[in-house]
Amino acid sequence: MTWWSVGVRWDAAAGVPVLGWRGDRGESRERPLLLGERLGFRAVGVRRCVGVARGGRLTGCATGAEVAARVTRAQCEECARLDRARSVAADTLSDDPRPYRVYLAWFGAGMVKVGITRVDRGAARLLEQGAVAFAWLGSGPLMAARRAEEAVRTALGVPDRVPYDRKRAVRAELPGVEARAAQVREAYRAAVGLPGWPESLRRTPECVVVDHGGAFGLVGLAPAAAVVTGLRAGGVVRGTVVAAAGPDLHLADGRGAVVVLDGRLMAGWELVRADGGADDGEVTVPVRDVSAVQGGLF
Fold first, then answer.
1. Is 85 in a helix, a strand, or coil?
2. Cβ atoms within 10 A of the Cβ of 108, count?
3. Residue 242 Cα distances to 85, 123, 131, 222, angstroms
4. What contacts 129, CB < 8 A, 6 or more positions away?
5. Assessment of whether the complete model's pTM goes beyond 0.90
6. DSSP output for 60-73
């Protein structure tokens, strides 16, 4: 049987990233990935579309279409279209009766975003985005949450998306836990003080900041030297997981050099074990050097 990677997701209850696979007959399996663990794999064949997620289950692509190695979304055009047809993120789902929460997420100094997520998902969305700290603003029906999100975005000038390159660029240079909590609380006070909130949206009565720095392994994190830009057939990635934030895995070799692998780039590949040799790390896939980015920030 062939097992195809579906990438990295977060188990919100356990607070750990999880590697997932889908078999060629529809079977699925997962395993947690722990900080300090050695990860090693080799990509085989070509990258295939992972299909469409519906109701927590993944339906395989009808054509098994090939997908480019460098894109983070491992879907063909048709499966991506089906996903967008019923998507809160794409604003094509407006009749979901389930309650939603509005949140503020913090990724670094000056990097706060506002967003929404279903109440029953807990903090999973924040872990998936790599939010270093966050706080809830309120909860209620989907459209009320969406209106509050837009009001906060417009009034405070905060985005609803932060590019991953910006998130990665500051992870090794973050202020301490209390300093980032103070920045979240400041944004919270400004947000909940805005007039015109939807009446059906219940504001969170006090700011409780949740910090993911420990779960992500960010304490003492070394600056990254490179970022993987895509896998390729026969390419090997090996290293020790020293941090994991959102889909990003920070992998160190025996000499301490760190390479960041976006777990979304793993999805759609058949991955087989690549055992280590004399060296603890090996990367034979395309990477982008980031050691000199932003005047030595990395």
1. helix
2. 20
3. 37, 22, 17, 9
4. 105, 115, 162, 246
5. yes
6. PPSS--B--TT-SS
Q: Which of 218, 216, 254 is nearest to 238 (CA)?
A: 254
Q: Which of 271, 188, 196 is nearest to 231 (CA)?
A: 271
DSSP for 119-158 reads GGGTTHHHHHHT-SEEEEEEEE-HHHHHHHHHHHHHHHT-
Closest CA to 87 of 118, 43, 131, 119: 118
Please write down the long-range contacts of 217-221, taking CB distance under 8 Å and 24 or more positions apart.
Answer: 217/35, 217/241, 217/242, 217/243, 217/244, 217/250, 218/132, 218/171, 218/174, 218/243, 218/245, 221/171, 221/172, 221/250, 221/258
192-216 tens-digit pLDDT: 999 988 999 999 999 999 999 999 9
